[in-house]
Amino acid sequence: PLAVRSSSLLEDALDHPFAGVYGTKMIPNNQIDEDQRFQALCAAIRFVYAATYLKTAQDYFDGSGRDHAAEKMAVILQEVVGDRHGDRYYPVMSGVARSFNYYPSGAAKPTDGVVNLALGLGRQIVDGGLSWGYSPAYPAAPPPFADVGDRMRSTQTTFWSVNMGTPPPPDPMRETEYLERTDLEVAAADGVLDHLVSTYDPRSDRLRMGCAGVGPRVLDFARSWWVRPYR
User: Fold this and answer.
1) What rounded mean pLDDT belongs to the chain?
2) pLDDT tens-digit profile of 101-121?
3) Are residues 119 and 38 part of one domain?
4) Cα 88 from Cα 192, distance rounded (Å)
5) In a shared domain, residues 74 and 95
6) Distance CA 196, CA 106 (A)
7) For residues 45 and 29, is the Cβ–Cβ distance under 8 A?
8) Which residues, other chains included, contact 47 with Cβ-Cβ below 8 Å and sequence gap of 6+?
């Protein structure tokens, strides 16, 4: 699969950066017919350029006080990282790192930054969906939840993947044309959750690492078995 995304001058501006304002189109790039594959790529490129004229982008322009003529854009093609599971293609995890944390907890400071992790494509995080957050300086610190119930209510329950199966009806102006949003149980059937979740044990009212048990699962990336403090 390919990610067709924008690369513009204003996306990295220090004041009013336009990162995330324009669209990114992911395409399966698996059609047997080369012409169909090429046409799908061309349509994705046109979508990215056309995204500069969408109302959300125009409103952001107006709010930032930027001159529309100051924007210059190229289009980048990137290979989507992940693995294929049946008709779905997605990474085990994706993440977004920020250098400043507006809501630190415990011993963490705002300048320690924050990392958000999600199963599947990073659209889950970029769109403001539920994800697992932690401070890079204190990856093993207890999460800022009042109790186990609060943690279960705040966990990711769906994930995004690229649809590698039967193409959907053409909808070239929809950013998620070739994407699927799927329940977490599908990822369990794909066998990717073993090191990513903890399972609720109602007898002890605790979360136990791994998929063992039949209780609800919390996507906490097996707590911090794989992360080291970063400073």
Assistant:
1) 88
2) 998 888 899 999 999 999 999
3) no
4) 13
5) no
6) 23
7) no
8) 4, 23, 25, 172, 173, 175
